[in-house]
Amino acid sequence: MSKNIYSATGLALLAVLFLALTILIGASLRGVRVDLTEQGLYTLSPGTINLLEDLQEPVTLEFYFSEEASSDLPMVRNFARRVQELLDEMADQAGGNLEVERIDPEPFTEAEDQAARYGLEAVPVGSGGEELYLGIVGTNMIDGLEVLPFLSPGRESFLEYELARMIYLLGRPDKPRVALLSGLDMDGGVDMQTGQQREPWAVLEQIEQMFDVETVEVDADSLPEATDVLVLVHPQGLPEALLSDIEGFLAGGGRLLAFVDPFAETAMPDNPQDPMAVMSMDRTSNLETLFEAWGLEFSSDQFVADAGLALQVNTGQGGSPVRHAAILGVTREFMNRDDVVTGELDAVNLASAGRLDLSEESPLSLEPLLTSSEQAGLMDVGRLEMLSDPSELMSEMGATGERYTLAARLDGEVPRAFGDDEGDGYSLNAIVVSDVDFLADRYWVQRQRFFGTSVLDPFAGNGDFVVNAIDNLIGNADLISVRSRATSSRPFTLVDSLRREAERNLRTTEQRLESELAETERRLGELQQARGDSDLAILTPEQEAELDRFMEQRLEIRRQLRQVRRELDQDIEALGTRIKIINIALVPVLVTAFALAVAWRRSRRQKARHRGGDSE
Amino acid sequence: MTARNITTIMRRELAGYFATPVAYVFIVIFLIMSAAFTFYLGGFYEREIADLEPFFRFHPWLYLFLVPAVGMRLWAEERKYGTIELLLTLPLTVSEAVVGKFLAAWLFVGLALALTFPIWITVNVLGDPDNGVIVAAYLGSWLMAGGMLAISAALSAVTRNQVVAFILSVVICFGFLLSGLPMVLDLFRGWLPQTLLDGIANLSFLAHFTSISRGVIDLRDLIYFALVIGFWLLANRIILEMKKAD
After folding, report:
1. In terms of CA atoms, which chain A residue is nearest residue B122?
2. Do residue A38 and residue B132 have CB atoms under 8 angstroms apart?
3. What is the ipTM of this complex?
4. Per DSSP, what are the bridge partners of residue A455?
5. Alpha carbon separation from A14 to A23, A24, A352 (Å, rounded)
6. Does the beta-carbon distance from B235 to A38 stay under 8 Å?
7. What residues pair up with A231 in beta bridges, in sequence order?
8. Which of A424, B62, B84, B151 is 20 to 30 Å from the Cα of B200, by its Cα?
9. Is B201 in the A-facing interface, judged by CB distances under 8 Å?
10. H-helix or E-strand containing A410?
11. A192 reaches B (C-beta below 8 A)
12. Got the DSSP string for A300-328?
């Protein structure tokens, strides 16, 4: 009997058994896993669990997935399996309030029509052009509807957040109400040249998805009723009645998220075609009345220039990108890690941000959320108006060694700025950001077309910051903890610091050489003046010699400058080469040396044995 | 099967590897190629992201040729020189010999993999990588090597010619690597039900390796690799017994 196992039949049986077992484990075992990622990217976060446990209304999620069309795409099938598992896990946590259904929208069925009606996307796949659905439709008892039209496998790390957000939105009967008062055209406005409506800012789209946003005109008298959070962007010359109403709203427990800016690049005059209007317009936000009452100091005529956080920008003159001391990429180290708003963000970008500080008599407490690095200083905003070469800022700025606050959370009892009774104060709860360009698309997000729809592709966390801040001011911390871990960039910090070091060196050398050049040019000018206006064409021999020397020196200085620029990236390249050599050659050389040593010892031992044998 | 016998044969085999230059040559080639691929094809330094994705991306393809090179001699050599009879007369079972030899080769590949540690140090010096993900990816890589090794060992028992064993192993490992891709699935489409097609897609080394190297150790992936190794070692044993009967 046992002999029979050791045969071709035995092998065939084994193969069948193997195949059966692999199919079985693929289909039956679920959710037993150890998540080794630092942030637990593939484990339900405590925030999601809280959210699910707090779910009051019954919510139904329908998971549309085309079995037939995906049969050729194992990666997509694996991803769909992952989605299904996550949904099941969430349903387990929600204790009966979350129902999950799986629907296969086969071609020419009612389910397919249903999917199309909900706006799910059908992606053509394979040579036959079959349509693949991979989306989720969420509904609640009161006709609430949320749709994820297509789940892209590339966005797996966002999956939990997107599902949690959907459940959160369906789980509460009404969305939180946000009043948006903006001095900028955040809804895109009308393009003067084409007469067409431009796309609204991505940040507006994001907050509109989450909240019930009502726009307030800058010349309105009052805020809408039942506002939860007021988002105030680039206030300029607000009517007193409105300011007073805002104070009343804050005094009544309303929360504020304010964006002010000493120099709002994104602001546009009514007629952007008119260069005079563009140049002469006032780009400074003004919320002085309230800030003064609170004891909040905002540098309305100075911006924070920071060599440590300066981002590279293209000058558009075909030259190499240069660092712009007013455009800052604030990284993790300069964010408040203990605050839920910034705790899990990786980077946000700001442009010509101001400084926030408290006056000595301020009753508030100020918790910085974003700060500059120590290599920062304050510069006059006038410097930005006619700036043609951003590298000039880098050489002009002087670092003070101080970290300036760029965004902060404020709370405490403050006196009223309006109203008769001085003693009548209220408890303020606000977040203030000293930059409004922070909200503009170009500082944090790109739009991409993905299978016919517009998909936002953020390269910085500005949008998350805004949504986090509003969420937090409303008081929903659970969702924040889910979202913030979704993006994580891990740059080569060593290379970054080398690059900054090299640029600092370049700047010092450049400054020295340029002042030498200026000195030489000045001497030449003096020489020419001394010569007077007579005999212009004829030079004295000394003058000629001086002129030659000058020309030579200028050439030499230019050569040196070019050399310094060339050397800019050399340290980084050298590090790269060293690392390549170490990784490719070091261990192989050691292994070879070890092998040779072993071989040599062995041959010596053999020789010794031979000699021993001979002498016997 | 006793652990002692397995350990004994494993030790004997492992010592055998380092008695000839072949083992060192293998390690050196593996190290140089994996690093060169990482830096030149993967652009590890230029992309400036602190993870080891460009390093692990090439492991399946490196293993495809290097692992059969390790596995091809396991039984083919013994058969060629007739030492297999000697081995099988020792007081140990065929199973013990199969497992012992496999473990020795697997440890050897593991040693080669461990010697890539400078890249791990490098990425930690350059930035702040997610080391949990790296641990998982190393484990996944080693498990995948184990799967390919078990295949190579079994096929090495089929023939006394090492080159034939090598080629057979590369072909089968290639099939296992690619089994999730449409070009393989198309062969079966139409005459196999979807469940079986899913099963075949589920055989893919690539899918399971990718799944683990995200940083998640899923029980299914572990069981999959255990099944692959177990199945091919059993096949190895059956083939040896069949050949013994010849």
Report:
1. A579
2. yes
3. 0.87
4. A448
5. 14, 15, 70
6. no
7. A180, A257
8. B62
9. yes
10. strand A405-415
11. no
12. TTEEEEETTTEEEE--SSSS--EEEEEEE
- How many Cβ atoms from other residues are within 10 Å of residue A487's Cβ? 18
Identity of the residue in A10, A21, A33 whose CB atom sits nearest the CB atom of B216: A33
Chain A residues with CB inside 8 Å of B31's CB? 584, 587-588, 591
Tell how strand A322-331 and strand A376-380 pair up.
unpaired
Alpha-carbon distance of A19 to A351, in angstroms, equals 59
Contacts of residue A300, defined as CB under 8 A and 6 or more positions apart, other chains included, come to: A260, A262, A284, A285, A286, A288, A354
A residues 282-311 lying closer than 8 A (beta carbon) to B: none
Quote the pLDDT of residue A136. Answer: 95
**Strands ordered across the beta sheet of A347-351:** A310-313, A322-331, A347-351
Residues A606, A608, A612, A614, CA torsion sign: positive
Length in residues, chain A: 616
- Does B53 contact A at CB distance below 8 Å? no
* Chain A residues within 8 A of B117 when measuring between CB atoms: 587
Position B32 pLDDT exceeds 90: yes
Confidence at residue A162, expressed as pLDDT on a 0 to 100 scale: 82
The pLDDT tens digits of the residues spanning B189-241 come to 778 887 777 777 788 898 889 889 888 898 889 999 999 999 999 999 999 88
Q: Give me the pLDDT at residue A411, please.
A: 87
Chain-centre distance for alpha carbon A370: 13
| Chosen from B219, B228, B239, B243 to mutate, greatest number of chain A CBs within 10 A | B219
DSSP conformational letter for A403: P
Q: Which residues of A touch B217 (CB under 8 A)?
A: 33-34, 36
Place of tokens 């993870």: B51
A442 Cβ neighbours under 8 A, 6+ residues apart? none
Mutate to test the interface with A, among B45, B115, B117, B243 (most CBs of A within 10 A): B45
Strand, coil or helix: what is A429?
Answer: strand
- B24 and A579 in contact by Cβ < 8 A? no
CB contact at 8 A, A531 and A543: yes
B22 has a chain A CB within 8 A of its CB? no
- Give φ, ψ of B25 to 5 degrees: -60, -45
Interface check A497 vs B, CB under 8 A: no
Ranges under pLDDT 70 in chain A: 1-6, 29-31, 41, 74, 154-155, 157, 192, 316-319, 420-423, 449-453, 476-477, 480-481, 483-489, 528-539, 565, 568, 613-616
Q: Tell whether A592 is within 8 A of chain B (Cβ).
A: yes
- Reported as a single tens digit per residue, the pLDDT across A224-281 is 988 989 999 999 988 888 999 999 999 988 899 999 999 998 887 777 777 777 777 8
Six token digits for residue A189: 């406005």
List the one residue out of B122, B224, B233 whose CA is nearest residue B176: B224
Cβ-Cβ contacts under 8 Å for B238 (sequence gap 6 or more): A5, A6, A7, A10, A11, A14
Q: Hunting for tokens 């190579």 — which residue is that?
A: B152
Neighbouring residues of A227: CB distance < 8 A, sequence distance ≥ 6? A177, A178, A179, A214, A249, A254
Displacement of CA A38 from its chain's centroid (Å)? 20
Element (H, E) at A413: strand A405-415
Question: Is the CB of A492 less than 8 angstroms away from the CB of B49?
Answer: yes
C-alpha torsion A101→A107→A109→A111, nearest 10: 30
Residue A297 has a pLDDT of: 93
Name residue, tokens 């080794």: A36
Q: Is A276 on the interface with B (CB under 8 A)?
A: no
The answer to whether A73 contacts B194, with C-beta atoms less than 8 Å apart, is: no
Q: H-helix or E-strand containing A251? A: helix A240-251
List chain A residues with CB under 8 Å of B42: none
CB B207 within 8 A of CB A78: yes
Nearest to A304 by CA among A261, A355, A262: A355
